[in-house]
């Protein structure tokens, strides 16, 4: 199996879909000649031309709205929002329009638009270029929400998002673009709503998303050395959530830690904790532990940024709390 | 040499059809006000009394494949685009037979088969989607036009500027119909816009703008045809700057304390598009009475149809969230 980066995996899903299907096109700010702020669409302009790799003005409302309009005609646009902080500018179109056309029309319309975006701390972009806002979108009926953590997953999930008949908000994490992983020769679509267990374990289930999947895997390895067996569970699709797999995992391990880079308060982990306590109440041997950023905007100075967002050590501490140990 | 008809001019029989449709919208809206006051209609209702010539003049110029999106004041547009009064009234009553099957209501009317892609309760909310719809037509090389209705109030919101900018930049086949009725809900034009001529805003994007008398259905029809020809011909979008008058409140029950005392009375006397068209086509009292009787029957029939319609089951609320 070939090894490619997370960035190449995103590009591969987009390119293959565009080769096969005239209805797929991409648009966003600086995505053509420049290849996107993260280099995801580099080279695609040469292959597909400026109509289908479409540079846009800095107009998040119009970019998303135009994607919705084209999607309502049966096209499958992939809109790139350069930084997920800028999703806030397009939320009206995502929340009031994309999510609701099907419902308000009594089922007459479909809106198969994919809105890709990326964020995350690690490079000191500061408070307006690195937030993790995925929980906001999970709260909106009518949207699907994906957060992929590996090259294989990001490729298979993006393919499914493009071919899903609903609006999908697709989160990528900036620090993952360079990571490499093996992928199948041909794209294997990954069903939206199907979780992935990265590592089997017996004592604690760590439910992690995005960058924290990798932090959780590192924490699990350390815990293993201390005799604590950790299962790492990545929901991959935040909406719909693979509740069955989640509850089954916690019923097996009897303990649960949720870990994401977004702030803890009102984060996606709160939803996971609620689902777990309801579905596996009698199986839980410890309170569900939550790991996430401190409740502050992201600071600029690297030492402060590092302090605010969670790392493997924070996940490990939470794991130990659930088994009544100290590090 | 054969007489060449002026491009876009409406023939006498066509004007009579327009009259009939405008009168239908008027009587429909009056009935909606009546049934709302009787406590039969849930939700928020915004009627288009006074703006009938815009709905009919624009929609009658469209081809079947053309699509529209509308505003919270959408009954007239929806009827003019071809939705049956029964289906519209049933929607206002929240019935499954309604054009949005009871999921939308007055502010969210859809009739996709007829090319009505949605009324929008967010001011300016549909505009970027019209740009995107037109982009899809351009991508596919289809000779279709996407058309947005919105009011003067919408020209202050970001989606308006972003959508027009993008449409002009990409030269998509879209028409933006600004129904300038001089009020953003209750706020008079002078308090919400530093620019009196709405065309100025479109011109700022380099977009072709046409001034239209919204109380004169012939003018609306002719200029919409010009705009459609331009857009369909691959020459880019057009802005229709339609000056019109809302001869009623913003919503049903609006006391209109923000309006000068005599304004409404004067406008009703001088700017009623139905009176104007009647004069133009010389419709006699008997003819009008007969037509009115026929239309009243249709409107009364729509209320009967709606009331006899099927209530959704409460749990139907769980359907249609995802495709």
Lateral arrangement of strands in the main beta sheet of chain A: 3-2-4-5-7-6-12
Strand content of chain A: 15-25%
- Uncertain runs of chain B are 1-5
Return the domain count of chain A.
Answer: 2
By oligomeric state, this entry counts as heterodimer
Written overview of the protein:
The complex is a heterodimer of chains A (about 325) and B (about 325). In chain A, about 40% of the residues lie in helices and about 20% in strands. Chain A is α/β, with parallel strands linked by helices. The model of chain A has no long low-confidence stretch (mean pLDDT about 95). Chain A folds into two domains: about 5-180, 3-Layer(aba) Sandwich (Rossmann fold), CATH 3.40.50.970; about 195-320, Rossmann fold. By secondary structure, chain B is of the alpha/beta class. Chain B has a single domain (about 10-310), classed as Rossmann fold, CATH 3.40.50. Chain B has twelve helices and eight strands. In chain B, the strands form two sheets. A six-stranded parallel beta sheet of chain B has the order 2-1-3-4-8-7, sandwiched between helices. In chain B, strands 5-6 form a two-stranded antiparallel sheet. In chain B, α2 packs parallel to α9 (about 215-230). The relative contact order of chain B is 0.17. Mean pLDDT of chain B is about 95; it is low at about 1-5.
